[in-house]
Amino acid sequence: MPTKVQLDKASWQWTDTTSPDDVTAEHVELAYRIGLPACQHNTCRQNCKGNPNCLVGLGEKEWLCDIKDERWHEVEDPNLERRAEDSFVGLKNLGATCYVNTFLQVWFHNHSFRAAMYKWRPLRCQATDKHNQSESSTTKEGGYTPTCICGHLQLLFALLQFSNRRYIDPSGLVNCLGLDAALQQDAQEFSKLFMSLLEETLSQQTHPEVRDVIQQQFRGQYAYVTRCNNCGHSSRQPSKFYELDLNIKGHRELSESLGEFLQDEHLDGANQYFCDNCRSKQDATRRIQLQQLPPVLNIQLLRFVFDRQTGTKKKLNSFIQFPEVLDMTPYLPRKDAETVYELTAVLIHRGPTAYSGHYVAHVRQEGAWHKFNDEEVERIEGRNLKLGSEDDLQGGGPKQGKRPKHVKGHHASKNAYMLVYTRRPSQENQADNSERQGISLSEDSLPGYLQDLVRQDRAQFEEWVQEMAGMRQRSITSGRARHAEITRLYLMLPPKPGSRYEWLKSDWLKQWLNVDSNTACKPIDNSDLICRHGNLDPDKIQQVKRISQEAAGILHSKYDGGPRLSGTSLCLKCVRERCRMMRLKSNLNEDSKFVTTTTKNKLEPGLPGYWVGKASLRQWRKMVLDREKPSEGKEPEVANCDAGQDMTSDQPNVESMVGTFNAELLCPHNGLSTDETLRKLVPVAVWERLHVYFPDAPKFNQDQELCRACQHRDEQQEQDGMLRVMMAADQKAALHQLFNDRHRPSWEKKEVTEAYAVSRPFLEQWREFVRQPLKHAPLSEVNNAFLICNHNRFVFEPGTVDEVTSNMYSLVWPHEWEFLTKNFTVDFAVRIFRDQEASENGRPVTLECQPESCMECIMARQTQARLERQEYSGARIYVRKIVTELDSVGHTQDEEDRKRSSHDTARDPDFFQQVNGSKKIRLSSYADSTRRSSRHRKVRGEKEVIVSSGNTLKELKIKVMHAFSVAPFDQTLHFCGQQLTDNESTLSSLGIEPGCVITLTVDMPQSEDPFAVDEIFQASSVPEAGFKGTGLLGSGT
Hints:
Blueprint: H1 4-11, H2 25-31, E1 90-91, H3 98-108, H4 111-118, H5 149-162, E2 167-168, H6 171-177, H7 187-202, H8 208-211, H9 213-218, E3 220-228, E4 234-241, E5 244-246, H10 254-262, E6 265-267, E7 273-275, E8 280-282, E9 284-292, E10 296-301, E11 304-307, E12 312-315, E13 320-323, E14 325-327, E15 340-350, E16 358-365, E17 368-373, E18 376-379, H11 388-392, E19 410-413, E20 416-423, H12 427-440, H13 448-492, E21 501-505, H14 506-514, E22 524-525, E23 544-548, H15 549-559, E24 561-562, E25 565-566, H16 572-598, E26 609-613, H17 614-627, H18 652-657, E27 679-683, H19 684-693, H20 708-734, H21 736-740, E28 754-759, H22 760-771, E29 781-782, H23 803-808, E30 809-812, H24 814-823, E31 825-826, E32 831-834, H25 836-840, E33 847-850, H26 855-870, E34 875-881, H27 887-901, H28 925-928, E35 942-947, H29 953-964, E36 971-975, E37 978-980, E38 997-1002, H30 1012-1021
Parallel strand pairs: 1-2, 5-10, 22-24, 29-31, 34-38
Antiparallel strand pairs: 3-4, 3-9, 6-9, 7-8, 10-20, 11-12, 13-19, 14-15, 15-16, 15-20, 16-17, 17-18, 21-23, 21-25, 26-27, 28-30, 28-32, 32-33, 34-35, 36-37, 36-38
């Protein structure tokens, strides 16, 4: 198949020999490419845009073959949501409720706890009204609906055991507790609060197995034993516990954490113990002594610790090793008790920080381990627990430590935060418990209202399965019908020879053939294919396809839209206009080559010629084409551009002013301009060809006289320039030291007794004039007005030399001042001199000035500068990250930067204020423009931080965290040699001013997780409310 360029050339090749007036219907059909052969299948890799008869590659390939039924629906097989045989049921994650799901799965798989919950009855619950119904509201004809925490938990356990769903929705319990499903909370705190609330609620039950289930299953007892070192007397204070909170920081094994929990604590010094036996404070030792352990021992590993410095929680990513069988005999005073425990559950937190991640539970049930990951429940192959994959999901960072060596019968994890150990029963008790639990956990043992809810859930699920299956079948039926319809219509698209046809947009056909079965096809829109004469634009032929009128009628009736473009919509006027433009471009190409070749060399002397503007000569071809643009602003395509034609401009400003050819040669008086740089002499042959395109252009032969008025103006400007050069030379000679800024008056030199103040902006502009007198205008006056305040006094102290004064004025010698007063108009004279009379009378020599310095304005300016350094908003400070051994160097640099930055605000001349509250004294426009730059120079490892004086040190650390990806608790900040430690202090109170430099030392390696720092920032920006406002604290519903 010919290429697009070949097709474009072939369809308009006839224009070379045909004038616009001779265009016929045959030429029009050639332009619209009606006679091109249609492409056959498997001959085109993609659709031929240049061939309106090519209907291949529009997306029809998929429709012309067999399509599987799965193509017609997005609904998966609903039976995939059915619970597999001999599998457990998962729990839906409602957003961020995975921490709730893990505990629910652990509690559900405690058979004794589950059996007790099945025996709970709503009629016997006497808890708060918010969590319970009256007797009449639980057994109405409408059925039972749980409204309290125990009722929801009971139903949840029943569905987890007897539902035919793959997973169930815990929304009822979550909503009853008032939990925010989108907010991830502290899992350990949830466990404690939920157990406490459940124990309180169950205490109202009359059945002892239900009422005391929490105590019987999870409650143990230990005592705080304090022994006096003086008399040996011991006191015991018993205490109940439901779980052991063990510190893992600095420990590798669970036994080490247990040892720390039970180790002796020495009470001495200010922390002495008051002994009842000695009747005085004495040194003592205190320890925790385990007395009684529960059947289910919950061990909380304190993996999330509170950082007092940052006010946020921090996750410890260190490995801890724990055994499968835990013998607690060494930790108990009685050795005859059953104290051997087996590991039955491990709760995992995936994620680098305490404010994000995911919770997963591993539970051992029926001799095998199962992983409960919200909706997904996986039976772990073999009989051993495999936690290595959980830790591998989180990339190992430099702070997470090395995995300990594997020990048989032990496991290690850096993500485990809770371990559940169940006491190993004796053989007799084990047989009795299995038989009793098998009876109590059967479906028949459930109360009637609970059985009804389970059956109702099953029926709803089966109904949903049937509904989804019906929806799948309807989608398949609809898809098959659409497949047949599109196949039939596509085969009708090619028009037969001699039959009627219509034009349709290619993009719409692609959309029609590629649109999803569930998405409606847009109406046909041919509006942008219409030319200004109301027909099909021949320039849009690459965007359309020619189809049979029968197929077009069916498509328009089904999808609406329009306008319809039939075979009579071919535009003769557009074809003739295009023919004319192409012939014009052909002539332009030929003339452009001739003009370019002929004007490369200068015209030989003696030969006649014409003046042509250089800009017009570069742009004449474009000017012709722009003039020939159609009225609607459609830009014609320029083809076969001469490669030798230079279309660039080295005088863009002049060319932008060229409206007509040779317009730049006209002076304001409509004569020939005197500027020779704007024109070029070209041969007569060149002018004649150009004149054909621009018959109304200004015509100047080589003998044309220049405009006399412009010549007179140029002569006058030349004379003025000479005068300015002479003036600049005289002033430079008279004030050469002032011009070169050398040998200036300085009060450090004792021989200097008198000087005058001259505004710095005046001197800068005067030097520019002297340096380039033809480019800059001469000055006529010395403007010292902004050196005088409203009290008609000098706004500076004489002799003060700093960056502010050096930007405002300079000192000149008396003889220089005399020259300035003779040659310039001076508004205010400021004389500074030594008080010679004081030297003669024995008093210290001081500097005086006329007029006198205004101390009132000077003090006001200094006060304002000091306030602006202390109270600021949106100011820049610089944080420099250094290594530890460079701290001393950084602290020294801090002092220098602080001194340099103390004048940042004072540099601004706009701060001068009047004491009476009137507006500020401002410099003139040229005064502002000549201020010197005093920008801070950054060094390597330094970044800008935008702060306000009211920001606290904690807020600054958060900004530093974003700049350097270093968590606040890993930052050590120094300013002026002092470490910044008080997080609640404001930057103003710490003496931090705009422009100062603070050094940052990183205490620990940074986290490798790029999202971890953002999570800490979000947590530190919002006060942590925990479970405030939920039912866990008694205020939920």
